[in-house]
Amino acid sequence: MPHDHAEEELNGSIRAAIAADLPIHVVALLLLGGCLVLLTTHGIQVGLGAIAANLRIYTAAAIAMVLFDLVSLLLRNKPNRPTRFLIETYIARLRKPRLLASLSLLAIAIIFMPFFSKLKSMIPLFNTYSWDHAFIAWDRAIFFGYDAWQVLQPVFGYPTISAAMAWLYHAWMLLIYIGTLFFIFYPAADHVRRHYMLGFVLIWTLVGGAMATAFASVGPVFMNPIMGDSTFDTQMAYLNGANEQVPIMTLHVQELLLGWYHQGEQGLGSGITAMPSMHVSMAFLFWLAIRQVSPTAGKIFFAFFVLIWIGSVHLAYHYAVDGLVSIIATAAIWRFVNAIIEVWDIARLRTARVPEPEPA
Question: pTM for the full model?
């Protein structure tokens, strides 16, 4: 029957779309499995609460995106029957194989971050925070004997600018949620969707997990509270003084992170680590991907990435070399991702071309 044939064709298309995404699923499952073993070995469990919290954030982001899309559809098309138009449009979209297959990628994004937030909070179990002085020395070698924040201070050292940088630093979260949803579901990003998602998985693991543990450091803001080192007291005095004039949003978050550190908190978003910078790494990944969707958006998000790097130093979260190492690591991961997907697509194409054996 025609209906059965259509359903069979749809199911086949969904299977083909899932097969194209197989490298992402395999890598994610292997990494999640390894993470689970590591956490279990140390008697730590990832409760459903952290995953549910991440799901709620993704849900809020999805609702915001759908509302924006609804308004855009109505303004562009000006239908005579808006409700019927929107229902028909969304039914047609929901039956697209690529969109249905992408739900598994969304599940990976929702589950993945809570696991690696746990790992981030476990860094002291595996390594001591011993790299800060080396990174301070590297920064001073680059900036002719000065700390990076001191070089930036003449340009950015004004309360209103610092407050704007802090706001932008928080806006980075949109890359994790709205940005990821964009690459998973937006049709114009389809050609780079797999690259972004595989990069997303590997960056959280290698940059935010393995490298953060190997190069354990607390960053300028926590040098005095955790290490008893007053090197960056002047920078923190400026930020706290600026906060009295214009609220610096990051200072409150830094207080929360310090409190969670002392309490041994292991929830979503907890944990202290400076090298490498996940803010810089994810902003750089987003730019690498979005520039292939829109050259204009590429220019905008390149500027965003640069400001995030500057903000990471100015707001005392990171040393300048944290961002530099993140860029190098992310660029290497991006090249690796491109190679993996290219090899996989070639293998799938060859398999599809192999003729079926003739019956005896």
Answer: 0.90
